[in-house]
Amino acid sequence: MIDPILYWNAAALEANRVDITEAREQSGPTLSSRALAIVHLAMYDAYAGTDTAAGLPSYLRRATAPAAPPPSPAAAVAAAAHAILRLLYLTQREFLDRKLEEAGLTEPGISGGWAYGLEVAQVIWARRKDDPKAEDQSWSPSMAREAHRVDPDNPGQGFHAPCYGARSDLFGATTPHALLDLSNLTAAEKDAAYQEVRTKGAAVGGTRTPEQTLMGLFWAYDGSAELGTPPRLYNQIVRQVAEKQNNTPARKARLFALVNAAMGDARILAWEQKYLHNFWRPVLGIREYDGSMGPTGAGANELIDGCDPEWLPLGAPASNTKAKNFTPNFPAYPSGHATFGAAAFEATRLFYDCDDTFFKDIEFVSDELNGRTRDNRETVRPRHVRRFPGGLLQMIEENGRSRVYLGVHWIFDAFVQGPNGKPDLSRNIGDVPLGLAIARDVVAASCKMGWSVPKKP
Q1: What number of CA atoms fall less than 13 Å from residue 126's CA on the CB side?
Q2: Which H/E stretch holds residue 386?
Q3: Whole-angstrom Cα distance, residue 425 to residue 292?
Q4: Please, what is the Cα angle at 71 between 66 and 75, to 5 degrees?
Q5: How far apart (Å, rounded) are the C-alpha atoms in residues 25 and 10?
């Protein structure tokens, strides 16, 4: 018998991969994380209502499925997942129907479970169907110094989801977590971050090591063909944890609901903070580091050290295409990657009630480095098996630093570095503190019945 949670999680991740490659109905980190949150919360509530012995607190629903005949949790999960995915991915309905057929649901009570799963899907979809879109909605960039503008190497890219965070209802968090302004950095901290990206993130030259380049690629998943988006990567890693722990379907239903609700809220709150702080990316910050550069520049002849008017980043990899590498089309601070990763991994840690070394035995092959994915010169990258002896904190730190090595983020977009060069998570600057706070909030809220938060007025 198939595990219904892992089965439909795999279907959702495949839909993400295909969507980014072809139709782009739920494209970008915002819509893709929203999609995964909706489907996994529907799966969770479907399971919770049909396997009452599991004692799972409901998300949106307090009612349970009919007791006689005993409904099938697998059928309820399948009905909920299939219905939601068909609403999200209109062009993949044939694939989703085939996955349903291949599930081979023949358990007793299937009719009761199926009807209940459809009802759950309808309730959750009604709550989320009017979420904001990701269009730029005529958002205009500021010409002020340090404000975000388009990547000068990809000037037609536009802006992704400027109004999304401020207008979206949260999935599970009870507090609209926010970050400190970058004025809380010292001048020395800010300058060190600029110099680090200039040397470690450059397309050519610089001091980036092969391992740092590898790290940048490993964590990328920047919406490229055949790869999907960052939430797909983090789900792949959590799948390995769940399979290794040999959890029951009930436990998996709760784990993936927590992880994807936390990432759904990470997306909302990170994007709210991004457009609130509106801080420029390295491709502008380094080229315009001198005060004479940029739209509001003041006259000067000698450029200060660190300003390079022709600097370009290694860039988010345009894998499996012949396009240029690029800088993502939204502000730098805070880092979406770092928020997603911290939220997903912290939710997993809290679910298992374990310490930071819980992930230390994982070996993972990123689809960016699987021996099949091609770079933008159509050269196949080698397969790389990566280990994490430092456990959870190594994964969270690597994920944040990887964006510096691609030259698309400053280190403070993820976290402040302490005097020892390690993350200082006591300061509320960067998306690692944000992601950790979101995960802790979501997990705490999930321990009560009806654990979703109220809609915004």
Answers
A1: 7
A2: strand 386-387
A3: 35
A4: 130
A5: 18
The two three-digit tokens of residue 208, written as one number: 């980036």
Radius of gyration of the chain (CA): 22
Q: How far is CA 72 from the centre of its chain?
A: 32
Q: Which residues are catalytic?
A: 337
420 CB neighbour count, 10 Å cutoff: 7
Q: What is the pLDDT of residue 457?
A: 43
Mean pLDDT of 40-60: 94
3-state secondary structure of 45: helix
217 within 8 A of 373, measured Cβ to Cβ = no
DSSP 67: S
DSSP for 245-267 reads HT--HHHHHHHHHHHHHHHHHHH
Instruction: 49-56: list long-range contacts, CB under 8 Å, 24+ apart.
Output: 49/76, 49/116, 49/120, 50/75, 50/76, 50/112, 50/113, 50/116, 50/117, 51/249, 51/250, 54/248, 54/250, 56/250, 56/253, 56/254
Determine the average pLDDT of the residues in 327-343: 96
Q: Output b/e per residue, 249-286; b: 16+ Cβ within 10 A.
A: bbbbbbbbbbbbbbbbbbbbbbbbbbbebbbbbbbbbb
Q: Position of tokens 């998570």?
A: 425
pTM of the model: 0.96
CB 415 within 8 A of CB 433: yes
Tens digit of each residue's pLDDT (9 = 90 or more) over 250-304? 999 999 999 999 999 999 999 999 999 999 999 999 999 999 999 998 887 788 8
Cα end-to-end distance, the chain, whole Å:
44
Alpha carbon of residue 164 to chain centroid = 15
Q: Which residue has the tokens 């980043």?
A: 313
Q: To 10 degrees, what angle do helices 73-88 and 28-50 make?
A: 160
HEC per residue, 76-111: HHHHHHHHHHHHHCHHHHHHHHHHHHHHCCCCCCHH
